[in-house]
Each structure stands twice: as structure tokens, then as C-alpha cells.
Amino acid sequence: MRHPAGLPREISSLDRTVVMGILNVTPDSFSDGGRWHDASDAIKRGRLLREAGADIVDVGGESTRPGADRIPEQEELARVLPVVDALVADAIPVSIDTMRASVAAECVSRGACVVNDVSGGQADPDMLPFLATVSAPFIAMHWRGPSAVMQSLATYDDVVSDVCREIGARLVALEAAGVSLDRVVIDPGLGFAKNAEHNWAILRDLEALMSLGHPLLLGASRKRFLGELLADADGQLRPLEGREAAGDAITALAAAAGVWGVRVHEVAASHDAVMVARAWRGPA
Questions:
Q1: Among the listed ranges 22-36, 151-165, 217-231, which one has the minimum average pLDDT value?
Q2: Which of 100, 144, 222, 263 is catalytic?
Q3: Which of 9, 74, 138, 271 has minimal CB crowding within 10 Å?
Q4: Residue 44 catalytic?
């Protein structure tokens, strides 16, 4: 398993796909908004994710669901800092899910070991210069615009080729800004400016994304395209809580294909799926 540079040893020594547990400290995320909005509840949830098998807990204070508006910087900091501080104090590896350089900088200074930016560094002009000053890995997601308008941007000539090309452009920008590319993980952004057909096309051709030469992260957990796939005879989408098994299936297939990491809401079954995939693939 090829890991990005800059990870803690306990993660970089893993010979399997990394499981990243999602911890949304928000009132309005699409799947679990409000459940962990209180800092004490979020801290308990982060510890439970770790106990269930999360290698990294991904803490986010701003919803990126379709149609979501931005929140003030101070509100984002107020949401995430107590959680980051508590989990780091417990020696739990933490990534910070943010589009703001200031939030990333504060969290990294407090011990967060990964920066996860759904905009790939495009939402904040200070993000790339900041990243050039630290050694933490950076997850650069494919992004075409803010959540409020992203679904209007889901138009492609060929989604796999277009996403690969646009991620490639971000890699060029990162390198030009002085960011060491051996620290970069790429994420195709399932569901971000993409419909179900686009998501499945990307999942069918993970090799194209991995050919870019960077570790690959996938975030399919509970997303709408799974609800559409599992819709009932009347066309009603499968409820969020009924999509977990489908997400675990994606984890297993992705891990068997050599994907670096998966980002999931419930980690126990995905951790098991990763272990099965490692055994299936055999020694590296």
C-alpha cells in the first residue's frame, strides 16, 4: 500500500486500505446533521469511531451537502476545535475537513495530521500557500464549485477523462505553489457536481484515477446514488440508514482494487470489508 508522505507511523505502516471515519460537527449535514453538533457528543462519537476501527477520524464543521451555504469562519472554528483537541489528546489520528486555510492551520497546529479539502484548494486562495509550509498530507477532491450551485455543474463530455484532467490541473497548481506532491491524496468527489451515472462511471474505472500516480480516497457512504440504486418499486429512495450495506460493498471492491482509503459514516463493517480485501489480494 502506497501512503502519502507525512502520515503518522501507525498509519503509514498499514498494508491495507485506510478507513476514515466521518465526524460531522454540524447541524445540517445530509446524513447526520445535528447528531454530533454538541462538542461533548462529537467527542464521544469520535472515540466510538476509533474503537470501531477508524484509522483516522475526519472532523468537519461545515456542511458540504448539495445546496449548503457557507458559514462564518469563527463558527467553523468553534465547532471543530474542542473536538480536535480532545481527540488528539486521546492519541486518535485526526484529519480536518475544511475549505479554509485558517481552520486547517489552527487544527494542524493542534495536532491534526491530515488536511481534507473538498475544493482541492480552490475555495480559499490562502490554502495552497499554507500547505506549502507544513508536512501534513493533503486530500485534494475534484470540485467544480460551491455546494449551493454544484449540481448545476454536473455536465461532462466524458466524466472519467474530465475528472482526471481537472484533478491533474490541481496537481500542477499544488506543485507550482510549493506543495510536495508526495503528500497529496486525490478524491474524485463522488456526488459533487456528479449524478448517479457519473458516480458509477468513475467507480467502474478506478484504474484511470490511480494512473495519476497518487493515493486515492473514495467517499461513497450513504450518498444519493446508492439510495437511487436501492429505490423501491414506487421509486422511493432507500433511506439513509438502509444504504450501509451498499456502501460496505463499495469499500470491499475499492479495497480489492487497491484504493488507499475510504471515508465512511459507520466504520465497523467497512473495516471488516477492508480486512477481507487485504486477505483476498494477498501479500503486497
A1: 22-36
A2: 263
A3: 9
A4: no
